């Protein structure tokens, strides 16, 4: 695959990952009521996210309420919030930086080496963004799993399990990591050849002294 096509594919994948991460951060479906067990004990389905909690009744009516206090939230929710915000900021800067560094754009064409370095920097930002999203979603999923399987007097069909936003977040992290990795492959070819020549010269010099 040509360098420009690889960069474009990486950029599109990373952009899709950033948009999916934004959707995951906003959706109130990080955990939802579990329907495991023999009988459903309530006609109301509960959904909770990083910013709000919702109750969906069997009639189709949905009521949502924002979390009232930041400091009263559990630690894993506050941590996941912070990681998602950092991820979105890194992804946003990655979008801007990558546009400047990609070969298919006209910005900085007079210096292709610097342009390639900028593309690599954008790829690194996307990789960091994907790692933050992955950490946030995995941390939240770990807490949901722990609360579901721990010994408790709460019936199993009244506990919480994974919501759809977690799967969206995992997909977003995968796309961001893939796209960022492809962009990181844009390292200037001249520098790669120079490094190979330097290593070959060192090996030749070492053989002469042997």
From TrEMBL:
Keywords from the named record: Cell junction, Cell membrane, Membrane, Tight junction, Transmembrane, Transmembrane helix
Subcellular location, record wording: Cell junction, Tight junction; Cell membrane
TM regions (residue ranges): 82-102, 118-142, 162-189
Gene Ontology cellular component list: bicellular tight junction; plasma membrane
Xref: InterPro entries: Claudin (IPR006187), Claudin_CS (IPR017974), PMP22/EMP/MP20/Claudin (IPR004031)
Flavoprotein as UniProt keyword: no
Pfam families listed in its UniProt record: PMP22_Claudin (PF00822)
Bilayer topology: Multi-pass membrane protein
Origin superkingdom: Eukaryota
UniProt GO MF annotations: structural molecule activity
Keyword Transmembrane set for record: yes
Family, per entry: Belongs to the claudin family.
Function per UniProt: Claudins function as major constituents of the tight junction complexes that regulate the permeability of epithelia.
Name of this protein: Claudin
Organism: Erythrocercus mccallii
Organismal lineage: Eukaryota, Metazoa, Chordata, Craniata, Vertebrata
Protein's gene: Cldn19_0
């Amino acid at each position: 695959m040509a360098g420009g096509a690889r960069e474009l594919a990486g950029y599109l994948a990373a952009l899709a990952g950033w948009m999916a991460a934004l959707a995951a951060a906003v959706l109130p479906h990080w955990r939802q009521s579990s329907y495991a067990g023999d009988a459903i004990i309530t006609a109301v389905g509960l959904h909770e996210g990083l910013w709000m909690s919702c109750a969906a009744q069997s009639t189709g009516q949905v009521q949502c309420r924002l979390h009232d206090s930041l400091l009263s939230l559990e630690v894993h929710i506050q941590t996941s919030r912070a990681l998602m915000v950092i991820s979105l900021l890194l992804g946003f800067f990655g979008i801007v930086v990558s546009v400047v560094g990609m070969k298919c754009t006209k910005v900085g064409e007079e210096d292709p080496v610097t342009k390639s370095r900028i593309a690599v920097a954008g790829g690194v930002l996307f990789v960091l963004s994907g790692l933050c999203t992955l950490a946030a979603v995995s941390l939240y999923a770990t807490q949901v799993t722990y609360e579901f399987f721990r010994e408790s007097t709460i019936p199993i069909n009244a506990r919480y399990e994974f919501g759809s936003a977690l799967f969206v977040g995992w997909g977003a992290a995968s796309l961001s990591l893939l796209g960022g990795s492809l962009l990181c492959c844009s390292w200037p070819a001249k520098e790669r050849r120079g490094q190979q020549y330097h290593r070959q010269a060192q090996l030749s010099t070492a053989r002469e002294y042997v």
